[in-house]
Amino acid sequence: MKNQLKIAIVVWIIVISVTGNFFAAAAEPAFMAVPDKPNPVSPRGYDNFSRTLTFYWNPAANAENYTVYWNSDNGDSGNLTLAASDASCGGGRCAVSTTLPFEGEYHWYVAAINTEGTVNSDTIDFTLNSNISTPDAYSPSGTVYDNRFTTFTFTDVQDNVKEYRIRVLDVYSSRVVMDRYWSVDEISCEANQCSITTDTFLPGGNYVWRVRGYSDNSASNWSNELGFYVYCTTCGYSTGSTGTSAYTNPVSPTVSAFQTNTVPTPVSPTGTISDLIPVFQWRTLTGANFYWITLYDASGKVLYNNTSDSSICNYETCTFSPGFSLPAAGNYSWLVAGGTNTGVTWGSASTTFTLVDAPKAISFIRPVDGGVIGTSGSSILWTDAGSLVENFTVVIYDSSNQVLLNTTMDRGTLWCDGTQCTLEFTSIPAGQYRIEVTPNSTYGAQAASASLNFTVSDVSQTIEIIYPKDNSVVQPRPLFRWKIPQSPEETITFVIQVTGSDGNTAQIGPISCGKSGLTCTENEAFFIPSDSLPSGSYSWTVHSPELNASSEPALITVE
Q1: Can the peptide bond before residue 135 be classed as cis, meaning omega within 30 degrees of 0?
Q2: Alpha-carbon distance 364 to 385, whole Å?
């Protein structure tokens, strides 16, 4: 599904009824007509951020009762009733409140009812929070004693969620130690809760975790963060190995809880990183007052070698920031040894990590900064930063810098093809806007944001026809020539439409400059069709959907 930005225009209709006075010799029963058609006011559009909301509509003449009917694209539905005499219909506006079950797309209308009949209003569409509901993280929390298997439990937010993503970070280094996706088919969900047990080995230590849901075209916000401590009672330690070596002490250990450590187990960097300037962290070696740190490339060549005293350590970890920049993306390993400043080593350990390129910032292709797009069927294109980018954060602001849209969109939703990505709008109101796009990598790194100012106009630009002009006589394969409203780009397309006197229409295109036989200069475009037109009378126009520009029709005669 394409992400869509719609803002509806509310039309206020005020109906004033004036009733004269009638005098009669005898009273006759009052005649009641069916109710007037009620006018729904809100909610509508996209600016609805709470599941608890109020339906508003203008009262309808002759109504005795109202019923509000709502349904969602998820299959949920309901109705609410209100007497026309209720105080909630005072002041020229009726209102009734409820709490909807989920976030998503909704539709509603109100029925005005009396003894003579029922009249329904028009149906109004609205979106309740364009993102998926935010899940709540429940467990693990506190102390975990088995680091071989961890069960994560959180709310089942539904909302057409197709998969969940769980991320675990080391408290001290903020290093991501687990970042995995599970489809809903792999997760056990019941009674509004989901759980998944992972076999990812977590060394002893302190962690935080969070979860988010993904649908086909949206993502929830991250859940609340929960902290937990893995108290490793099964870890074995051996010199030079990082297999199961890890922290063994809580955040605030007592003297009795403290255990001697004989291996300076590496903590970070490990796994996959995107920071060119790594910070080295390892478990404090009990009694050591001196450390040796060595970094190797994939071939075993020493890239960095240095030492430090124990001033960089607390009771649990040592943190060393050499300011050394890695030369390029690739595989690396590093070793840390601890001992005394006389050169005696008591223990050492090593680990590996992979540096991946951080995502690059995008560049906007169309429109240009300050350019114009149309109110319907328009799109914004930018360069594709490549498969390293997992998704994009897209924020759209209005002219007063208020946020109209803030969402995360994956590559499929944006039609990314390795060259460009396309954000399509079904409709967008006329006005001044600014869009900000931030690429996010698979490993959590963000590129710099890029922004673009653009105008949405419901007034088409005019394309001036150069040849054949109105009332021209042409050959069966005429040269079509027109002026271009702005400098041509390969991404701008044109459609030539030729209509015969019998009403039949032939369409050529879309065609773009330098392709399909279309030749463009700085200000003009030229095209000769490959097929001949039969003799007769025609009209022709040219249109560019990207420029929101069209020509006036020109009448021509083919001889």
Answers
A1: no
A2: 11
Q: Compute the distance between CA of residue 196 and CA of residue 375 in angstroms, rounded to an integer.
A: 45
Other beta carbons within 10 angstroms of residue 305's beta carbon come to 11
User: Residue 315: what pLDDT?
Assistant: 67
Q: Hey, what are 157's tokens? A: 């937010």
Which residue is it, tokens 């599941």? 51
- β-sheet bridge partners, residue 160: none
Contact 203, 148 (CB under 8 A): no
Give how far Cα 21 sits from Cα of 18, 24, Å. 10, 10
| The token pair that represents 404 in the structure block | 């109209």
pLDDT at 253: 32
- pTM metric for this prediction: 0.35
Q: How far apart are CA 331 and CA 334, in angstroms?
A: 11
Inter-residue contact 171 to 227 (CB < 8 Å): yes
pLDDT at 250: 34
Predicted local distance difference test score (pLDDT) of residue 385: 80
114-143: pLDDT as tens digits = 998 999 999 999 887 656 788 999 999 888
Q: Which residues of the chain have pLDDT under 50?
A: 1-29, 234-260
If residue 451 lies in a helix (H) or strand (E), which one and from where to where?
A: strand 450-457
Note the pLDDT of residue 124: 92
Q: Name the residue among 396, 381, 413, 393 with its Cα closest to residue 47.
A: 396
List, for residues 311-346, the tens digit of each pLDDT value: 998 767 899 998 888 887 788 999 998 888 877 777
- Enumerate domains of the chain plus CATH numbers: 1-130 (2.60.40.10), 137-230 (2.60.40.10), 266-355 (2.60.40.2550), 364-457 (2.60.40.2550), 462-558 (2.60.40.1220)
Query: What is the rounded CA–CA span in Å between residue 197 and residue 187?
Result: 9
Which candidate, 364, 397, 376, 353, places its Cα nearest to that of 458? 376
Of the candidates 153, 137, 126, 99, the residue with the CA atom closest to the CA atom of residue 221 = 137
324: DSSP letter: P
Contact 179, 274 (CB under 8 A): no
Closest CA to 414 of 425, 403, 406, 422: 422
Give the CA diameter of the chain: 123
